[in-house]
Amino acid sequence: MLEEVHYTKEEITQLKQKNEKVLCYISLGEIHKYVSFFKEAKNYTLEGKNTIWDSYYLDLNQKPLQEILLKNIQEKLTKGFDGLFLDNIDNYGPYGKQKKQTKKLVEFLTTIKSRFPEIYLMQNAGLAIIKQTHTFINSVAIESVITNYNFEKKKYLFREKKESKKIIERLKKIEEDYKLPILLIEYTESKRKCNKIKRKLNKYDWPVFIGQINLQKKPTFN
Questions:
Q1: In angstroms, rounded to a whole number, what is the distance separating the alpha carbons of residues 192 and 173?
Q2: Given this model, what pLDDT does residue 82 score?
Q3: Among candidates 89, 103, 90, 44, which has minimal Cα distance to 69?
């Protein structure tokens, strides 16, 4: 999963020679001031902000916003990406900021697949609404199954075992019911914790990516 602004079309072509799918990041729930279409989309956001990431909540009820997103998706595909890593889908779950727009999200996913039928979509999180979204996506990513970053204290921690077990059981059910590949994303800062994560997740047949919380550079572990 890459951010388009950091890569040229030629570099994406090279990456595709060694990777089955090359996906581009897009958030369907929030927008940050550094996103290329921020000025166009800012007028179609909800009240309030995600203070952790300094981002604004998108209002998918706004048709112009949908067209802005679709235009950007077309640009990503034209650049050579195979599909999208859909972030902030959990915002549309029962406890999310956009929980009243779940139906609108599903309608927008329908539009994406209709306009770009060959596109590959990886949903990040949003497990609570997978029943509504599974027909549109090709795989599921889930962050922090056994790790848990504390933003207030800026510390990398581990979840309670029972909490992790609950998430893992839900993932197994999704895999069984919908036959969707699953990718785990965990966060830590040390090599020792990195090895611990690998040991804990080794018994599950799911690929695991381990990095730092901002995901802006190649992971390094002290």
A1: 31
A2: 98
A3: 44
Whether residue 122 contacts residue 166, with contact meaning beta carbons closer than 8 Å, is answered with no
Beta strands in the chain (DSSP E): 23-27, 30-31, 45-50, 55-58, 83-87, 120-124, 139-143, 147-150, 155-158, 182-187, 208-211
Q: Is the pTM of this model over 0.90?
A: yes
pLDDT of 217 above 90: no
| Residue-level length of the chain | 222
- Three-class HEC string of 196-213: HHHHHHCCCCCCEEEECC
- Tell me how many degrees the CA angle 201-203-205 measures, rounded to the nearest 5: 90
Determine how β-strand 147-150 pairs with β-strand 155-158: antiparallel
Residue 209's contacts (CB-CB under 8 Å, 6 or more residues apart) are 183, 184, 185, 186
Nearest alpha carbon to residue 28 among 70, 78, 74: 70
**CA pair distance 58, 30, nearest whole angstrom:** 5
Residue-level pLDDT at 215: 82
Cα–Cα dist 8/79, whole Å = 8
pLDDT at 35: 94
Q: Which of 64, 54, 58, 61 is nearest to 26 (CA)?
A: 58
